[in-house]
């Protein structure tokens, strides 16, 4: 038997692989089932083309798959495009965010910084609001202090001013110059508000006190009590209001007292006190009883106004201040005593009593003898009444000198002067109507006039001195104007030479003060004319007025010459007229200040004042007496003419060396006198 033919290695492996393949595997069975669906004939040709058939079958399946998935592919392409577009947008957004992060970093830091600044500003605003609350007045408070009717808002605003003033003192204690400067400025501002408010409050209280004089038992409002309590912080204003209250109640009480003496009560009940004049004991007792009752009601009114916080009782005044310091007790007690004393001053007339007692002293002495008991009693009563009278005048004068009034804008005399003159005229009328015994004579009246008017004149001089000193620092106060007639005869040129050494600002302030004094002296002198008992004092007042007018004219002439530039040249002209002509001196024209050009400008200004159409020369409109005003204008014109005559003679003097003097001094002195109306 022949040996089996050996197989090729490759074929052997394939055969082995085929033989080892399992035909019952699911994958193989599935493949065969699929193959049977399109492999219908088992022919050699078919077997040879099996591979290509399978590949074609796979290709057709893939083509079908591709055809079936074409729409999905298109959709995926669109999705891809949209995704790509979305990616581009995201890239742009990311880029924008990166740019924003780069730019907003500064914004965030700036925002943080501004937020911190806002907090600081808020704190500063709160501090500023607290500062304005503690150191400034609101518009409503300013209106309450200045414009609105007096109400509780006024006192609240005034209390706020006090608080601000106290707070400013704390600023002054700091070591910062800005705080100290702010404190001073605020204190000045508050001082203006405070003084204005107190002056307005004083005027309102005075008006209310005047209304109290219209009623016998007036009702005191709570607002008035509060106002007077506030005025205690200003003793001078409080004193004015206390005086106004005392004067009004004085007049009211005097009317009531006269009515009780002569007419009695309403309907005749109670009966007039004078019906019991035949019974001295009852007559005096009824008057004292009425005064005691009136004193109780007036005392209650005065305490309700001037000391509303005190406890009402009927004990001595000093006992009402047990809860107040001794200093305040003394001050308040003095104010209350003054008011009550002024109110009841009208029910006593020491001067009338004095002259009546003096008449009966002489009459009784003629009948009984000087050394009898009755006459001694009458003389003692007369001396006591006279002493009381002069003590009242002295006290009145001291009060006037203690609180001199302010000078009014129109330079009119103060009300205290008119009141004093009115009292003097009443006393003069009483003196003229007094009875004189056969053996006696009227007492000297000059001391009475001096005791009453001298303090008034001194008060006016103090007021004028204070008005003159505003804005001008003086080393000493001007003494009272001398009544020496020799002063009046002093030359106007001498006065001009003396005035060259005085301050111009001092002269400007002195003119209104002199006019004020002239108005005051004239207001005193005019009512006294025609009264024989005051003739000597009237002459004294006339001399004082003449001296004041003379001094006023001197100052005005010097002021006019200063304006023209001639004041400093007057001494040279005056000396040239006094110099001996035989002594050779350099001509005035060669002096710097006295050259022709300088003198021409000065004279041009002088002629402009004299010949000007406007009222260049003072006419003393504020001088209230027309005759004195005319006299002052006449003296001014004479003094100017006299000064120009000196200048004219100096220019015309050949020794002074002025070329063509007539062109320099165009008007002779006679023309100037005619122009000035002399």
TrEMBL record:
Belongs to the COG6 family. This is Conserved oligomeric Golgi complex subunit 6. Component of the conserved oligomeric Golgi complex. It comes from Castilleja foliolosa. Required for normal Golgi function. GO terms for cellular component: Golgi membrane; Golgi transport complex. The lineage of its organism: Eukaryota, Viridiplantae, Streptophyta, Embryophyta, Tracheophyta. Coiled coil: none annotated. Residues 180-355 form the Conserved Oligomeric Golgi complex subunit 6 C-terminal domain. It is a peripheral membrane protein. It is found in: Golgi apparatus membrane. Keywords: Golgi apparatus, Membrane, Protein transport, Transport. InterPro entries: COG6, COG6_C, COG6_N. Residues 35-147 form the Conserved oligomeric complex COG6 N-terminal domain. One of its GO terms (biological process) is intra-Golgi vesicle-mediated transport. It comes from the Eukaryota. Its main location: Golgi. Residues 468-491 are annotated as: Disordered.
């Amino acid at each position: 038997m022949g040996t089996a033919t050996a197989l090729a290695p490759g074929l052997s492996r394939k055969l082995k692989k085929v033989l080892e393949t399992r035909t019952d595997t699911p994958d193989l069975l599935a493949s065969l089932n699929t193959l049977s669906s399109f492999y219908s004939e088992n022919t050699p040709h078919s077997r040879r083309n099996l591979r290509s058939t399978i590949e074609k079958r796979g290709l057709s399946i893939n083509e079908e798959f591709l055809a079936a998935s074409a729409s999905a592919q298109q959709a995926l392409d669109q999705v891809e495009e949209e995704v790509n577009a979305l990616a581009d947008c995201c890239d742009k957004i990311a880029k924008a965010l990166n740019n924003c992060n780069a730019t907003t970093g500064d914004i965030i830091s700036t925002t943080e910084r501004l937020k911190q600044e806002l907090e600081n500003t808020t704190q500063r605003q709160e501090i500023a609001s607290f500062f304005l609350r503690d150191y400034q007045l609101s518009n409503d408070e300013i209106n309450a202090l200045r414009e609105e009717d007096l109400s509780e808002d006024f006192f609240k605003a005034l209390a706020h001013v006090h608080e601000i003033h106290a707070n400013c003192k704390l600023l002054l204690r700091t070591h910062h110059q800005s705080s100290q400067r702010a404190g001073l400025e605020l204190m000045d501002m508050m001082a203006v508000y405070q003084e204005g408010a107190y002056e307005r409050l004083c005027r309102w209280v005075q008006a209310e006190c005047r209304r109290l004089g219209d009623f016998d038992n007036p009702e005191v409002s709570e607002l008035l009590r509060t106002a007077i309590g506030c005025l205690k912080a200003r003793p001078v204003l409080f004193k004015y209001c206390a005086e106004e209250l005392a004067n009004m109640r004085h007049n009211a009480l005097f009317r009531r007292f006269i009515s009780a003496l002569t007419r009695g009560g309403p309907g005749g009940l109670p009966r007039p006190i004078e019906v019991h004049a035949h019974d001295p004991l009852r007559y005096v007792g009824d008057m004292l009883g009425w005064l005691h009752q009136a004193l109780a009601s007036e005392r209650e009114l005065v305490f309700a106004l001037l000391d509303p916080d005190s406890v009402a009782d009927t004990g001595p005044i000093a006992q009402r201040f047990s809860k107040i310091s001794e200093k305040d007790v003394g001050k308040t007690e003095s104010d209350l005593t003054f008011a009550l004393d002024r109110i009841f001053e009208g029910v006593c007339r020491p001067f009338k009593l004095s002259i009546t007692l003096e008449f009966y002293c002489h009459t009784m002495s003629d009948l009984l003898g000087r050394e009898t008991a009755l006459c001694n009693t009458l003389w003692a009563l007369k001396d006591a009444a006279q002493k009381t009278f002069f003590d009242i005048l002295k006290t009145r004068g001291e009060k006037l000198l203690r609180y001199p009034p302010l000078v009014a804008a129109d330079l009119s005399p103060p009300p205290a002067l008119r009141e004093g003159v009115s009292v003097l005229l009443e006393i003069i009328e009483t003196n003229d109507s007094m009875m004189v015994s056969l053996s006696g004579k009227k007492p000297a009246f000059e001391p009475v006039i001096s005791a009453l008017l001298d303090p008034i004149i001194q008060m006016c001089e103090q007021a004028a001195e204070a008005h003159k000193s505003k804005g001008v620092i003086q080393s000493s106060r001007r003494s009272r104007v001398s009544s020496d007639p020799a002063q009046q005869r002093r030359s106007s040129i001498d006065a001009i030479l003396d005035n060259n050494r005085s301050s111009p600002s001092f002269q400007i302030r002195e003119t209104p003060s002199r006019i004020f004094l002239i108005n005051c002296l004239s207001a005193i002198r005019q009512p006294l004319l025609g009264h024989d008992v005051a003739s000597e004092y009237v002459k004294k007042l006339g001399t004082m007025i003449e001296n004041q007018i003379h001094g006023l004219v001197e100052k005005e002439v010097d002021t006019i010459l200063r304006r023209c530039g001639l004041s400093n040249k007057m001494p040279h002209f005056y000396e040239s007229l006094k110099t001996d002509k035989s002594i050779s001196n350099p001509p005035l024209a060669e002096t710097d200040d006295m050259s022709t050009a300088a003198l021409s400008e000065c004279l041009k200004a002088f002629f402009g004042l004299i010949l000007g159409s406007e009222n260049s020369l003072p006419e003393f409109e504020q001088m209230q007496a027309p005759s004195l005003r005319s006299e002052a204008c006449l003296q001014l014109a004479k003094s100017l003419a006299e000064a120009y005559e000196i200048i004219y003679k100096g220019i015309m003097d050949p020794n002074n060396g002025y070329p063509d003097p007539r062109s320099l001094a165009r008007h002779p002195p006679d023309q100037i006198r005619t122009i000035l109306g002399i």
